[in-house]
Structure formats: structure tokens, C-alpha cells
Amino acid sequence: MILINGCKVEDDDKDKPVDKVTYSLNDINGTWNRHSLVTSGNGGFWIYGNIENKDGTSTLNTVLPGAGTWDTTYSSEGTAVSAEGVITWAHDPAAHSYMSSDKRLWVGTTVRGNLYTLVFDLKVVAGTNYSTADFEGTWHSFYLVSGGQWTGWVRAVSVMNNAGKCTSVSQVNSDGDILNTSGGTYALAPDGTITLASNSYHGFMSADKKMFTATMTDGGGGGGLLVSLKEVPGTTFSKADLEGKWAVHTIIAGEENITEHGIISVDGNGNAIFLEMNRDDGSIFNDPGTIAVSITSTGEVTFEEGYHGFMSADKNFFIGLRE
To answer: What is the pTM of this model?
Structure first.
């Protein structure tokens, strides 16, 4: 089961005026909310918490199910940010993250021993206040589960009202099942924290209120990671929105457990090639062949072997799942 996401690096359409985004260590200063999934041959689990960054020193405060595997609080020096937006840590040489162009999200992977991890970090923006009314609208959700009685994914389209009540319009899982519509009522605290009736559910909403991430214990006991993107009425998409280079991070969960990161380059005809794909075992592969990528006018992204994803309304991020 594979989750793949991409952050736009640069646009290859030379007719478009694009201001090159540059990054510095100052861009990660502050507090970030983290949600992550850990998978291994022995199962999987979730981690959530926050990171306090200040001038190259990062303090990670985490919550894990049960006793967990890593320290719940860890502080280290040596955090670095390249001018291109790549984030690395001296204490974790396998870690690699990429920051979005609005500098309010980074996505990354790492591996320690046989623990393979995908992380999403959303910035806490001072002065942002939230209410359940921020849920109102249609959301595209991508949920990956590792460990427990079932490892797989679920993708869903859901409608939420201004009281946080959610009704899933469609749900499909990796077994090919079309699931019954379901729902629940979510709470959104003024600080952006999202909770559900399940004690294990913990989420956080982005400052622009168009994305949220969450972790939870799946019904079968495995660890679950959820990423949801909001539809913005009036937004239309075309193949031109795919064109350019995308920094991607991937996690594979199941019989084989892998993380990798690299670049997807897409031309104006939707032809994509993979560049500088770095796997956690140190191997690198380039251009394994051209893959056709498509996008609908409503933002659904599809390519190789059943991948189904969705693009954010600002057209600088996509996420999806496949077998």
C-alpha cells in the first residue's frame, strides 16, 4: 500500500511569471504540529506531537500509542534548511523533508532500524482562530493504515457542515470495496486541534483552513494516518497545473516497507519521469520510464497502476494512494 505526495518545486512553463522561492533556517522557526505513520515488518503505529524550532535547535514533543519506540521528548541541534527547501537533521541522517512554497507545511520521510516513517508538519500561525464552521464544505481524504488486523488504505469524499458533522459521500478501500457512507461529528478547538469521539483521534487544521492531518488507531488495532484537502468552489484544474517539478515523498506499507524521496518532472503533455529517487537503503534510481499523469477539472489526479489523488486549491500540493 503506497501513499505518495508532492510539493511543487518549480514551474516549467516559461510563459508563466514565477517568482523563485528561496528558503532559510528562519522559515522553520516556531511551532509545528506533526502527524506521522510508522510502518515495519512487525506492524505499525502513529505518532503525533509538536516541534519547537529555534535557530537550528529542534525540540520534539510526541505522543505514541502504548509505550512507543522513541523518546517522547527529544531536543537536538543541527537542523538545516537548504535554499531549495530541503530540511535535514544532524541527529537523523536518513531524514529528508521538503517545505511547501507558502512555508507552512513540510513533508518528509526517515528510517531507523526497521521503522519506516512518513511525517506531515503544519505550522502554527499566531493569531489564527478556528471554529467548527471552518469544516463546512467538501473534503477529499486519504487514509493509510499499517499493522493490526488490516494494512491498507481508504480514500473518501466527505461533506461536513458548520457544526462539524461529517457524511462520507463515497468511500473506497484498497481491497476494492465500496464502503457504506458513514459519518461522525468532529470538534475543532480554537487552536486548530481536531478531535472525534474516538479517544485516539488527533488532528490539526492548516492556517488557511484548507487542509488537515490526523492520526488514530484503526479499528483493527493498526496505526492510521489521514490527510484531507478541501474543495474550494470555483477552482478548476487543467493539465497545465501538473507541469513542472514536484518534490515527492513516498511510504510503502505491507509485506514490503519502504520510504523514498525524489523529484517528479512533468511536461506540458502530462508525461512524467522520476528523477533522483532516493530509497532508504541508499539506492538511487532515475527515469524508470515515462508515466502519463492526468488531472480532472475538479482536481482528481491519476497515474501509474491505479494511483488516485487530489490537488490542493493553490495547485502547489497533491496527495494520493495506490496498491
So the answer is: 0.93
